[in-house]
Design a protein that fits this description.
Layout (H helix, E strand, L loop, with lengths): L5 H10 L3 E4 L4 H11 L4 E5 L7 H8 L5 H9 L4 E3 L5 H7 L8 E4 L5 H9 L9 E4 L6 E4 L1
Parallel strand pairs: 2-6, 3-6
Antiparallel strand pairs: 1-4, 2-5
């Protein structure tokens, strides 16, 4: 949320990708669900790999949670399988109703290193947070 998406978008266009969307009011997992829904596959996300601003954790602990975030969490019931070691705070953050949370990219495995190298030349971090897996279409597994 601290950077514009322009440089990251330029890097992904130069590298190649299968799908990309900006993270907004539907939260990370809401957008991931939409991306995976028509793919015939599911996804797995490691919540520990998701970059989160430090102040966000304190806001969640203070119960400063927008209604939109709770709506996202409710909507995803039945689509998300939460691992037993995924804390409630992480569930809230992964469904946060952001207004500009960066880009979510689906990149072929053979292009990940090139994309990360391109992103390293920008102020936009690039983290591998998950993978496409054989699972029911649009299902999301969140692991620790």
């Amino acid at each position: 949320m601290s950077q514009l998406n322009r440089e990251a978008a330029t890097a992904i266009l130069a590298t190649g990708f299968d799908a990309c969307t900006d993270i907004s009011e539907f939260g990370l997992l809401g957008h991931l669900r939409e991306m995976a829904a028509g793919s015939g596959f599911g996804t797995r996300v490691n919540w520990n790999a998701v970059p989160v601003l430090d102040a966000v954790w304190e806001l969640v602990r203070q119960d400063c949670i927008p209604d939109g975030t709770q709506n996202n969490l409710d909507y995803l019931t039945g689509f998300v399988e939460w691992g037993e070691n995924v804390p409630e705070e992480a569930q809230i953050v992964l469904c946060d109703a952001q207004t500009s949370g960066g880009l979510l990219m689906a990149v072929p495995p053979d292009k990940v290193a090139a994309l990360q190298a391109a992103l390293a030349q920008t102020p936009s971090p690039g983290e591998v947070i998950g993978e496409i897996i054989p699972a029911p279409e649009g299902q999301i597994q969140v692991i620790a």
